[in-house]
Amino acid sequence: MKKHLTLTIALFIIYGIHANAQKYTINANFSGFKNGTKFYLKDLDADLDIDSTEIIDGKFTMQKSLSTVKSFWLYARPTKQEFIYTNLLIGPDKIQLKGDIKDFPRDVIKNGSKSQDVANILNNHTKALWGKRDSIVNIIAPYLLGLKPDTAKHRTQALSKEMKSIDSNLNNITLNFIKQHTNSHAGLQELYWKRNEIDKVEFTKLFSTVSTALKSSSFGQRISNYIKVGNPVKKGDLFFDFEAKDLNNKVYRISNFKGKYILLDFTETYCGPCILSADALNALNTKYADSLQIISFYAEKNKAVMQEGIKRDQPKWLCIWDGKGSDSEITLKYGVSGYPTFVLIDPEGKIVSRFSGFGKNDDGSSNLEKEINRFLQKDN
Q1: pLDDT by residue (tens digit) across 61-95?
Q2: pTM of the complete model
Q3: 331: phi > 0 → left, psi -120 to 50 → alpha, else beta; which?
Q4: Given this model, what pLDDT does residue 22 score?
Q5: Cα dist. 377→275, 316, 372, 374 in Å?
Q6: Options 3.40.50.12780, 1.20.1250.20, 2.60.40.10, 1.10.10.10; which CATH number does 2-112 get?
């Protein structure tokens, strides 16, 4: 009896140690925040807030079960107008965070996670460039989106050119980081995000060097799925047929709409340009009611998030999803890496146009309306 009791106690202790190890602990020391400011930890895979707490005297602690390395946003809304965040790449680690409100998103000090340590290498090489890029975006975005008249077009053109140069430098630095750190969670994460910018043969070769354990990780599984899907469809190809459901779980197949033009709108609820495109989509839906079928595919994993977007934008066209977010085989097959992405399919099923982003022209029309009119006005 005593032997069995001793064994039970030993197993309990071992289990307790193991269970305790499978947790993250985040200890934060931040200045610049009012007492009671609420911080949230968002699981970017699931698009869900999994933890939250309030900061008191500049400090807070979060702790919850976590068995594997995942990508998170730690974010807060100090005021109704402010949204601050920083990225975390952590597993069952004990993390120490330190900084001021002005250090978000890229200058927060993060210690205690080996995965985050590797991610910090890339951040340290790129944060100055990202700072310059953010400054340019803040200046030119209102003009590109048509929210302000572009009376100094030469200035925005020069800034846009500078931003392209910054993007090129960021891309080169990131690709070099991927090659040096492929066999890490941070390297795999960047490899997945750069999937459409790396030759498929080279991409597959890089992934083949990754350990078996990392291949079974969250980003490893996404990459395996991307490779399995094959080359994305492009302009000139026949469309890739798929099924997805609306919020009432009614299933739709894209081929059922063949015979009309089909505009696939790959969108996300909280994407700024996606929100701004709603009026243009509504105008097109009204103008070409008999010859165009608009289908918005929501790249969301959380149904409540999609519901919020539909409630806000009140679309009068078909809205569908598959619950897999940006990792969906559908978004992968259509090569979607930014939102919104628009794909126009002609009545014979051929992809005749494909582009990403939404903006306004000098005459007040949108790039979306101009492109769709180019095809449908001649056919009506």
Answers
A1: 999 999 899 999 999 999 988 999 999 999 999 99
A2: 0.73
A3: alpha
A4: 87
A5: 25, 21, 8, 6
A6: 2.60.40.10
